Amino acid sequence: MLKKVLFKTLPIALGYLPLGIAFGVLLEEAGYGPLWSFMIALTVYAGSMQFVMVALLTGNDSLTSIALLTFLVQSRHLFYDLSLIDRYKRFPFLKRLYLIFSLTDETYSLMTSLKEDADYDNDDLLFAISFSNHTYWVLGCVIGGLLGNIIPFNTTGIDFVMTALFVTIVVDQYKANKNHFPFIIGLIVGIIALIIFGQDRFLLIALMMTSIILVLNSMRKEKI
Amino acid sequence: MREVYIIIIIALITFLLRALPFIAFNRKNELPPLMLSLQKELPMAVMILLVIYCIKDISFTTLNTWLPYLLSIALVAYVHHKRKNVLFSILLGTFFYMFCVQYLFK
Questions:
Q1: CA-CA distances (angstroms) from residue B11 to A10, A40, A44, A103?
Q2: Which of A78, A167, A197, A204 makes the best surface tag, with the fewest CB within 10 Å?
Q3: Cβ–Cβ below 8 Å for B98 and A171
Q4: B80 contacts A168? CB cut-off 8 A
Q5: Please, which pLDDT band fits residue A43 given cuts at 50, 70 and 90?
C-alpha cells in the first residue's frame, strides 16, 4: 500500500516540497529558524496563509485584525464540497479530527478525485494520503529553514516568492472561470481601499467589502 | 511571545474553518445556491486581494521600485499562462525580480 500512497501523492509532493522550502527560507530570512518552520508547518499547515504569516510575524498588526484576516483568507474552506463529510464519518474520532485538520486544498482535490475508485473505501489509504501530504509539507518547511542559514548569495528580493505564488494562483483561477466578476471586483475594491485606507488597514476592509459585494451580487442573481 | 499567539490564532481559525462544514452542515451534497456561487467566487477575489497586499509597500513615485515589481508580476503571469508550471513560474519570476533589484535598478 505504501507504493500506492507514494504514487498517488507524488504530484502533491512535487509541489509541497519546493514550496515548503521556499516558505522555510523566507521565514528564516525574516528571523525565524527551522524550529519555527517545523511548528508552523505542523500546526497551521496552510500554504498561502503561511506565506502571509511571514509578513504578519514581523509586522505589528493587532491580534484581532490577524484573526479576522485569517478568517477571510481561509474562508474558502467553508464552501468546500460536502461530499467528504459522509466519508470521514466512518473514521474513529481522533483520526477524523486529523483528517479534517489536514484538509488542504490539494489534499481535498486528491480525496474527491478518488471518489469513484475502489480505494475510496480504504480507511488506511485515505489516512496515509493525508499524513503523507502533511509530511511533505513539514519536511519542505524544515529543509527551507535549515537552508536559509547557508544560502551563500544575496537574497534581497526573495520575498517576491509570495507574490509570484499568488500571481500563479490568480492566473489559474482566471483561466478556469468564465465568471471574472470577482476578479474585477477584488481588483477595484483592493486598489481603492489601498489608496484610501493606506497599507496598514486596507486588506481587512477590502476583504470585507468584496465579500459583501459578492454576497449581494449572488443574492441579486438568485432573485432573477 | 506575540509570535506564538499569532501562530496559535492562525492555526485555530484555519482548523475551525476546515471543521465547520463537518460540524454544521449535515446535509449530504447540497450547498445552498448562495453558498455555491460564493464557493467559486470568494477564492478568486481573495487571491487578487492578496496580490495587491503584496504590492502595498511599493512606492509608486520612484520608477526603481515599481517597475521591476510590475515587470516581474507580468513575467510570472505570462510564463504561467504559457507553461502552466507553478514552480517554474515562481522561480523564474523571483530570480528575475532579485536580479533586477540587485543589479539593474539600484
A1: 26, 8, 4, 13
A2: A197
A3: no
A4: yes
A5: very high
Prediction pTM value: 0.84
Kindly list the residues from chain B whose CB atom is less than 8 angstroms away from the CB atom of residue A155: 98
> Is B81 within 8 Å of A175 (Cβ atoms)?
yes
Kindly report, residue by residue over B4-55, the tens digit of the pLDDT. 999 999 999 999 999 988 887 665 556 666 677 777 788 888 889 989 988 8
Q: Are the Cβ atoms of B49 and A207 closer than 8 angstroms?
A: yes
User: Are A77 and B17 spatial neighbours (Cβ–Cβ below 8 Å)?
Assistant: yes
* ipTM computed for the complex: 0.87
Q: Is the CB of B98 inside 8 Å of chain A's CB atoms?
A: yes
Residues of A in contact with B56 (CB under 8 A): 194, 199, 202-203
Task: Provide the grid cell at A101.
Answer: 485538520
| Residue A180: CA count within 13 A, CB half-sphere | 9
Q: Which residues contact A198 (CB under 8 A, 6 or more apart)?
A: none
* DSSP result, B69-103: HHHHHHHHHHHHHHH--HHHHHHHHHHHHHHIIII
